[in-house]
Amino acid sequence: MAHEPLWHQGWYAKAQHLASPNFGPRPQGAHIDLIVVHSISLPPGQYGGPEVLQLFTNQLDWNAHPYFEHIRGLEVSAHFFIRRDGSLWQCVSADDRAWHAGASSYRGRSNCNDDSIGIELEGLEGDTFEPAQYLALAQLCKDLTQAYPIAHIAGHEHIAPGRKQDPGPGFDWPRLRQDTAWSDQCFPLI
Ligand SMILES: [Zn+2]
Questions:
Q1: What's the rounded Cα separation, in Å, for the pair 12 and 27?
Q2: What is the pLDDT of residue 1?
Q3: Average pLDDT along the chain
């Protein structure tokens, strides 16, 4: 019996797909060796609603909550979004360049959007994350190595220090290190 391939043109078979218009081509020859972990919730601290996926697909009603006034017109995306229950969404092909990192630098290279994969965890800086999210994240990380030369994983806070603080102190890096069984060299100094 034929099995669906794990990756098809950068789309992951284990994720639900919701295509975002917020992406572009990667630079020619981009060496996609970095995973960037983020946290997001809209409104901040409220989980389970449609707002994050609406933001990533330019469908968010900016008038629906006072907080949205602060992000009105923002056009962003991430390759992946992991909800509190571990369910996984993909909004941009991992072959393409998503808009999650902004001004950033890591492992001696700037503009991390060019050659990284962005994974958003539904959460809040300072809050903890769910076991189901760590499980889904670790599996996704391992599966990404089947298709991309991943050598580093870091938080948004590590690639844009001083400007960004997600996923924040509630994210358990040692746990992810254990779940992936990746070497210390793959992780930020923690
Ligand atoms: Zn972020």
A1: 21
A2: 55
A3: 97
Residue 80 Cα to ligand 1 midpoint, Å, equals: 12
For the segment 37-49, what is each residue's pLDDT rounded down to a tens digit?
999 999 999 999 9
Lookup: tokens for 107: 């492992």
Could you list the active site residues? 120
Give the pairing type, strands 11-12 and 7-8.
Answer: antiparallel
Q: What is the CB neighbour count within 10 angstroms for residue 60?
A: 20
Distances from the Cα of 88 to the Cαs of 60, 67, 91, 137, 162, in angstroms?
20, 25, 10, 9, 29
Distance in Å, CA 146 to ligand 1 centroid: 24
Residue type at 68 in one-letter notation: F
pLDDT at 2 over 90: no
Cα distance between residue 116 and residue 23, in whole Å: 13
- Rounded Cα–Cα distance for residues 72 and 38 (Å): 20
Strand partners, 88: 82
Which of 39, 37, 61 has its CA nearest to residue 50? 61
